[in-house]
Amino acid sequence: MRTKTECREFLTIVVGVDQLELLKKQDFPGSQDVIGSARRSSGHFRLRGTRVDMERLAGWVAGEANHARDRETAEPFNDLADEIEGVLACS
Questions:
Q1: How many structural domains does the chain have?
Q2: Which pLDDT band, with edges at 50, 70 and 90, does 91 fall under?
Q3: Alpha helices in 1-91 (DSSP H)
Q4: CB-based contacts of 18: which residues, under 8 Å, 6+ apart?
């Protein structure tokens, strides 16, 4: 079971413009706070959210990748899922 501190821990992921647009287009449930936190930084965007928010987002993104009809459609979702899961693994 997670402690309240772990649930409030904030994590940051760095995404490209295309990845941010993909997230906005999908409008995954509960992703609005993470997307709304976007801050431009050296040609990329930094997205900030709680560990729980990031875990949920990773699940939605990975699910979308798994259900994509072809490799070309799945690739951007896989890349984004890898980014989120990498940050989760390091914290």
A1: 1
A2: confident
A3: 4-8, 17-26, 32-36, 51-66, 71-90
A4: 76
User: Cβ(81)–Cβ(62) under 8 Å?
Assistant: yes
Give the model's pLDDT for residue 3.
Answer: 52
Say how far apart CA 83 and CA 49 lie, in whole Å. Answer: 14
What is the residue range of 40's domain?
Answer: 4-90
Tens digit of pLDDT for each residue in 3-61?
555 556 899 999 999 999 999 999 999 899 999 999 998 889 999 999 999 999 999 99
Contact 5, 51 (CB under 8 A): no
The 8 Å CB, 24+ separation contacts for 83-86 are 83/13, 83/14, 83/15, 83/19, 84/13, 84/54, 84/57, 84/58, 85/58
